[in-house]
Specification:
The chain has 392 residues and is mostly helical. It is 46% helix and 5% strand. The protein has a three-stranded antiparallel β-sheet.
Amino acid sequence: MTALLPPPQPIETLTIPRELDGSAGNNRARNGVAQISAHNDLDAIRAWLARFIDTKTTFDNYRKEAERLLLWSVLQMGKPLSSLTHEDLLVYQHFLADPQPGARWTASGGRKHPRGDPRWRPFYGPLSSTSQRQAMVILNVMFAWLVQAGYLAGNPLSLARQRARHAKPRITRYLSPELWLEVKTYIQEMPNETDREREHYSRVRWLFTLLYLGGLRITEVGENTMGRFFRRRDANGEDRWWLEVLGKGGKERLVPATSEMMAELSAYRRERGLPALPSQGEDAPLVLPIGQSLKPLTRAALHRIVKQVFTGAADALRARGETHAPRADQLQQASAHWLRHSAGSHMADQQVDLRLVRDNLGHASLTTTSQYLHVDDDRRHRETDKKHRIDW
């Protein structure tokens, strides 16, 4: 039967034969009142995903994992998703480590094709052990919700052995001050002769300033604008700049735009032919593409810029001899989120109050005791400006 089925398709255009659509799945709830109107697996998945439609990153990640499992269940196993057993999902986890046959499941050359392109495939290659675990966590959330909604009788992933979680003693995915210096040195030595080189250099320097001094997530860089910078007078009559960030989960926070950050912003804007300071409501993206376009860079494009710098800095380290290889390997693994972790770690190292670090990075609030630990914004700005520096 599976040989007659079409290649994998995105779920928005997917058509599943009735015998595989889950309308009579073995794990369908037979008793009680369903809380959703879905009559088949595809509609049930869509109902679950609809909860995340306003949070693009979450929606994309959840859709990807649900879509992969549904396609595998129908095309590889020849059974509805709502008939999958615990044993089936153990097989699926092994499949994630090496999706075969590759021609059916993996995009040629690992390229990411648009969802409407016939070359689109659900995978770009094998998943790392971390990505496999993340996939199963997301699917467990989905199955649990479908049980709660009265669509499934049970969660086949609930039988998985739950390992006790122990808090890690500290964040490990961050750059030590010595490795951070290597990155800054590499950036400062980037070619800077032609107009295009200068434009690229100034963009890289500004992007790394935002990620480090602001502790911004890569998605926050792409989704916010320069018009979100604003100036406010503090209790001492001193003007201070802030960046209002619309962040994860639609939450807003104020990031201190330190004197260093504003100097870097002014230099970047002048390089691009813009006034030194942004105006209120200005819709220019925080980081501009090369050329005349004012279209925001995608998360993937920003990620590529950051990874190219880390790779270049790692290569420069390796070129200095074998003794530098371990540090180069660590740098090679770094991503934009490492800069956010580095910002938090370095602020803590400089003895910035942890409550200020929490507010700068937009972490979850403290519990009810937070009312006794409140720190005013002006002090947060002073402490951040004084102790959290990039020192180009």
